[in-house]
Amino acid sequence: MRITNAGAEYLISVQSALEVLQSATRRFQRRSDDHVIRISALPFFASAVLLPNLSRFESENPQIELRIETSSSYVDILNGEADIAIRFGREHVGDLICKPLISITGQPIASPDYLASSPPIATAKDLDSHTLIHVRANRNAWQTWAEAHDMQALSGQSSLTFDSILGAIDAVKSGLGIALSMAPLIETYPGYGQSFVPVLGPVEDRNAVYNFICHRNKYQDRKIQRTLEWLESSIGFQKNTS
Q1: pLDDT tens for residues 173-228?
Q2: Strand 96-110 to 197-198 pairing
Q3: For the chain, what is the domain count?
Q4: Which has fewest Cβ within 10 Å: 51, 148, 180, 195?
Q5: Which residues span the domain enclosing 112?
């Protein structure tokens, strides 16, 4: 497409106006999101902690809007993909705050119907006669649990693998086998004690930690602090209920 001389002169004359308009639009978008906090959380944490306590946050903080995204993928806090991330592991970046929220451990669970129709389980070794349910992102979880119970290996009679802990829990509820859940948070998950129950005991050494992660420059922001207080109190409710 060919631009005429008149068209080129017109473009030059309106260029500065367009730049001003774009700048004003960006400022307005930032202002319109001033009341928003974006949280990227692992799916199980969102289901066990965030969603059951969301109405309480909304009633206590009507001026703040939470936008919750569930994802197991990396989220770039430094580049503004989220304001807060809930993840395992510590971030070794100087511009990030990484604050431990709660330590968790593996707790085997199964449905009462599955246990009633399967070989009895008295020791960790008995799990070799059962179907073990795995989560793809943490295929070594059962082996870690076995080693903590002084077993060199734990293979199970058969196995199933799911993409998430939520899928594994659904499989347990359907009586498909035994999965490793996350104690103590699992104790307040819908269906605990009814559609699924604990089997044997958890590993007492809790070295996996859910962490609160945010940009260091935003940590003291009132909205961030109010959200952190809500997260910590929500986990406190989980502990008191368990």
Answers
A1: 999 999 999 889 898 888 899 999 999 876 655 568 899 999 999 999 999 999 99
A2: antiparallel
A3: 2
A4: 51
A5: 104-198
Determine the Cα–Cα distance for residues 112 and 192; give it in Å rounded to an integer.
11
pLDDT given at position 214: 93
Whole-number pLDDT of residue 79: 83
Beta strands in the chain (DSSP E): 36-41, 65-70, 84-88, 96-110, 131-135, 158-162, 178-183, 197-198, 208-215
List Cβ<8 Å contacts ≥24 apart for 93-97: 94/216, 95/215, 95/216, 95/217, 96/213, 96/214, 96/215, 96/216, 97/212, 97/213, 97/214, 97/215, 97/216, 97/219
Same domain for 165 and 89? no
| Span 11-19, average pLDDT | 56
Q: Calculate the alpha carbon distances from 9 to 2, 26, 209 in Å.
A: 14, 27, 61
Instruction: Look up the CATH number of the domain holding residue 224.
Output: 3.40.190.10
Residue 30 pLDDT more than 50?
no
Helix (H), strand (E), coil (C) string for 44-100: HHHHHHHHHHHHHHHHHCCCCEEEEEECCCCCCCCCCCCCEEEEECCCCCCCEEEEE
The answer to whether residue 8 sits within a structural domain is no
Mean of the pLDDT values across residues 138-158? 82
Is 22 part of a structural domain of the chain? no
| CA separation for the pair 41, 54 (Å, rounded) | 13
Residue that the structure tokens 């999101």 belong to: 33
